């Protein structure tokens, strides 16, 4: 009997060589695609960071509208945020703290308000404030919002904060201009006068920062006990830096750098008074450092001194910088040093633009 056979099917599969070729092709395609994906992700993170800088800037503008001045920069690192001392020069804590009511964080600003500073309730409120990290204060390309190790140093009030294992920090800094002495402690023996406690603050002989030509004259917009209004920004709000991203060494993102001046830019917390943690400058005419040391830069491992003075970011190409009108622009790392300095000084008569 004759059997009718259908079409034959090949039982042959892929050879090992063919499989290796396919895998190699897939690996090559992934290798080509990965940089594009990473670039797209970084672009999204930079855009998110830009939006955060804008929110902070708008908070500053709203503060200016409501209280006729930008947030004050606080007193110095021996002091931190105090809920019962307002938001102007009498507030010892940082400009971030004064900004809280204007960025929908009133509840945080009210922690400890009205309580006896010697009570356990006040201490608990202070500890809660110093361990509460705010996502708005952290660049998405750098580190998540959480408390980080610190080395705050000697504090004159709320002394328990210095012994806490970790505190909230921030990735942004206010513009303190190109002043001769800045960020709480100057070079050499120059330093700002600070009281021993709040009781002595009311009649204290504070350092004069308003006399042109003096060592402590301030040219930025947020600094030691500052109270800068529109009329004080002589070069115009569109031509003057307000706040921007600060330089950090990636080695110090989540831990303290092992000594060296570079750790000064992130060794206290977000609520600390006038300090390099929350303030940056564009130039110091009396400093022995080079002009390049104040130049904006991308975060770089090993570059930790004197990076604590400079603006910078984790983004390639440039950092996000808000101007005093609330707008946000990109400051490239190769910006002309003099243009950078002029933009940081609110009243030098050099009304330049970032693109100039």
> What coarse outline follows from CA principal-axis ratios?
globular
Helix content: 10-25%
Largest sheet: 5 strands, mixed
Classify the beta-strand content into a percent band.
5-15%
Radius of gyration over C-alpha positions, nearest whole angstrom: 26 Å
**What structural class results from the helix and strand content?**
alpha/beta
Q: Unreliable segments (pLDDT under 50, ≥5 consecutive)?
A: none
Short description:
This protein has 356 residues and is an alpha/beta fold.
Question: Topology of this protein?
Answer:
Layout: H1 16-67, H2 95-99, H3 106-109, H4 120-130, E1 148-149, E2 166-167, E3 172-175, E4 241-245, E5 279-280, E6 297-298, E7 312-313, E8 318-323, E9 328-332, H5 337-344
Parallel strand pairs: 3-5, 6-7
Antiparallel strand pairs: 1-2, 3-4, 4-8, 8-9
Would you give an account of this structure?
With 356 residues, the chain is an alpha/beta fold. It has five helices and nine strands. It has helices at 16-67, 95-99, 106-109, 120-130, 337-344; strands at residues 148-149, 166-167, 172-175, 241-245, 279-280, 297-298, 312-313, 318-323, 328-332. The strands form three sheets. A five-stranded mixed beta sheet has the order 5-3-4-8-9, covered by helices on one side. The radius of gyration is 26 Å and the shape is globular. The chain starts with 15 loop residues before the first helix and ends in a 12-residue tail after the last helix.
């Amino acid at each position: 009997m004759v059997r009718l056979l259908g079409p034959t099917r090949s039982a042959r599969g892929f050879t090992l060589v063919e499989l290796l070729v396919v895998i190699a092709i897939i690996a090559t395609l992934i290798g080509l695609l990965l940089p594009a994906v990473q670039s797209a992700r970084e672009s999204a993170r930079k855009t998110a960071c830009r939006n955060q800088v804008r929110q902070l800037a708008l908070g500053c503008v709203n503060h200016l509208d409501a209280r006729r001045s930008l947030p004050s920069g606080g007193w110095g690192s021996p002091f931190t945020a105090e809920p019962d001392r307002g938001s102007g020069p009498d507030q010892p804590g940082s400009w971030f703290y004064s900004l809280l009511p204007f960025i929908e964080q009133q509840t945080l600003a009210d922690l400890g308000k009205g309580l006896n500073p010697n009570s356990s309730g006040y201490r608990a409120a202070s500890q809660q404030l110093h361990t509460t990290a705010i996502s708005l204060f952290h660049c998405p390309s750098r580190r998540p919002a959480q408390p980080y190790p610190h080395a705050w140093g000697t504090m004159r009030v709320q002394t328990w904060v210095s012994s806490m294992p970790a505190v909230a920090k921030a990735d942004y800094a206010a513009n303190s201009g190109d002043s001769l002495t800045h960020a709480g402690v100057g070079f050499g023996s120059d330093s700002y006068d600070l009281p021993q406690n709040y009781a002595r603050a009311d009649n204290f002989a504070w350092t004069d920062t308003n006399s042109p030509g003096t060592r402590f004259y301030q040219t930025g917009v947020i600094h030691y006990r500052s109270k800068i209004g529109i009329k004080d920004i002589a070069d115009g709000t569109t031509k003057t830096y307000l706040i921007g991203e600060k330089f950090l060494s990636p080695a110090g993102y989540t831990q303290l750098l092992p000594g060296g001046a570079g750790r000064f830019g992130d060794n206290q917390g977000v609520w600390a008074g006038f300090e390099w943690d929350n303030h940056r400058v564009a130039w110091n005419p009396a400093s022995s450092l080079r002009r390049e040391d104040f130049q904006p830069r991308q975060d770089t491992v090993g570059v930790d001194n004197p990076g604590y003075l400079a603006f910078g970011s984790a983004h390639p190409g440039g950092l996000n910088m808000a101007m005093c009108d609330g707008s946000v622009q990109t400051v490239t790392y190769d910006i002309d040093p003099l243009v950078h300095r002029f933009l940081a000084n609110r009243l030098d008569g050099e009304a330049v633009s970032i693109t100039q």
